[in-house]
């Protein structure tokens, strides 16, 4: 069952803010972490960017990654995680893996 709009925005905002805090705390000296208007941008020294944002009409969180490309995630209420629309990968696992490829640091994103 799809999230209602209010709950979607609450969960998506919390997720994006938490990711921003964890990544900034762990890697903020090595890359630029910027959260504005609900859009999280993580910029590497090379200029490559990870972008995480919510997409209200579909009630999804979207990830754009220089490693894995674009992916979309639906909220799985049973597991309380954002799961890929194309498989069983979670947003946190994909982002952690992709960041590790680019930075050499594997983060536990929750």
Automatic annotation (TrEMBL):
A matching Pfam family: Frataxin_Cyay
PROSITE patterns from the UniProt entry: FRATAXIN_1, FRATAXIN_2
UniProt keyword Iron present: yes
Keywords: Iron, Metal-binding
Biological process, per Gene Ontology: intracellular iron ion homeostasis; iron-sulfur cluster assembly
A GO molecular-function annotation: ferric iron binding
GO cellular component entries: cytoplasm
InterPro entries: CyaY (IPR047584), Frataxin/CyaY (IPR002908), Frataxin/CyaY_sf (IPR036524), Frataxin_CS (IPR020895)
Function (record text): Involved in iron-sulfur (Fe-S) cluster assembly. May act as a regulator of Fe-S biogenesis.
Protein family (similarity comment): Belongs to the frataxin family.
Stored HAMAP family: CyaY
Protein name as annotated: Iron-sulfur cluster assembly protein CyaY
Organism classification: Bacteria, Pseudomonadati, Pseudomonadota, Alphaproteobacteria, Rhodospirillales
Gene that specifies this protein: cyaY
């Amino acid at each position: 069952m799809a999230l209602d709009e209010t709950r979607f925005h609450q969960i998506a905002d919390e997720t994006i803010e938490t990711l921003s805090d964890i990544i900034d705390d762990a890697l903020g000296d090595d890359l630029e972490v910027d959260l504005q208007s609900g859009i999280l941008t993580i910029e590497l020294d090379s200029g490559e960017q990870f972008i995480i944002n919510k997409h209200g009409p579909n009630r999804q969180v979207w990830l754009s990654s220089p490693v894995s490309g674009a992916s979309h995630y639906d909220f799985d209420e049973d597991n309380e995680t954002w799961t890929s629309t194309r498989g069983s990968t979670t947003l946190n696992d994909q982002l952690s893996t992709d960041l590790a490829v680019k930075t050499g640091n594997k983060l536990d994103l929750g």
